[in-house]
Amino acid sequence: MAATPFDQSMIITIERHILEEQSGHPEATGMLTSLLYDIALAGKLIASRTTRAGLAEILGSTTDVNIQGETVMKLDQLADQSMYRLNDHTGRLACMASEEHEGILPIPERFPTGKYVLLYDPLDGSSNIDYNASIGTIFAIYRRLSTDGPGTLADCLQPGRDMVAAGYMIYGSSTMLVYTSGHGVHGFTLDPAIGEFLLTHPNIRIPENPKYYSTNQGYQRYWSRGIQHYTHWLQGLEGENKPLSARYIGSLVGDFHRNLLSGGVFYYPADTQDPTKPHGKLRLVYECAPLAFIAAQAGGCASDGQQDILDITPTSLHQRVPLFIGNYSLVQAAEDFIRQYD
Ligand code: AFP
Q1: DSSP structure string for 265-298
Q2: Looking at the DSSP assignment, which residues form a beta bridge with residue 163?
Q3: What is the pLDDT of residues 27-78, one digit of tens each?
Q4: 237 with 213: CB under 8 angstroms?
Q5: Nearest CA to ligand 1 atom 18
Q6: Whose Cα sits closest to atom 1 in ligand 1?
């Protein structure tokens, strides 16, 4: 018998996977399934642009400054618009919110509204674009709280625990989409030849023996005593621990993705460097909460140093919180050191 190059029954597209997950829920209307599929489509579009990022016409900064005070790069805007435009007319969303905009993004009046809200960071780690390091898009989906009409700010400020689905696309040596709708974490790799996300990482669990710690150690002098001791502990300089290896890209999706697959902890603690940012740099609703939901589904967890990220009810769209995320034992240890020394 002639050898077949691959077993086609093993090929599971993201569409098939999402539909199969939905079939376990007879009450489902298919709206979430379609929403996830639209997000995957936006991911393909963004991936196609990021792989051409070295080409002169789209590389470089615009003169615009976003509400975080950062220079907006053209790819951020392309990613932002791709997410918004592919989701504004479908009737699935009450409103959206993007890390690139100060307020919520309403659905244009000419289109119907739906029962979900979508929050996203269109291109996280964008300061890495010029250096060809991994960047990503992060998203979170909640059920709206308001009953009808345009979505509201309150619809977007829900604790992570109430999230319906979360995920990210990572644009690296390949493009991957990793998502959870509360039934495990699943990873898909984009096959550029056929333009489909194919299931490559079913049921991702954070390995029990962690390999890495990831933090910007350049800021060590601005850290509290608790964080200094915690870092020494991770390095094996305090206690009996075998030292973990250090890895830090400075692109949250890239750093989180590596630690999700290899085991480890990423942390961006509060520091004293910038008095206008007393709680660190990362945004609760756009970055920390969605990744916390994924970490929890993969057997890990996330904390702000005192409580589970998923238990925090946001007070504003651009709220920043300290983040410790990864293996459960390493995140708990961070809380212990903070409790003991700070
Ligand atoms: P940019 O989108 O400005 O590159 O910021 C990326 C980010 O929000 C997150 O992805 C990184 O983990 C973190 O900032 C890196 O911050 P530092 O450069 O301060 O380490």
Answers
A1: EEEE---SS-TT-TT-S-BIIIIIHHHHHHHHHT
A2: 142
A3: 778 888 899 999 999 999 999 888 876 654 545 555 566 666 665 557 888 9
A4: no
A5: 250
A6: 125
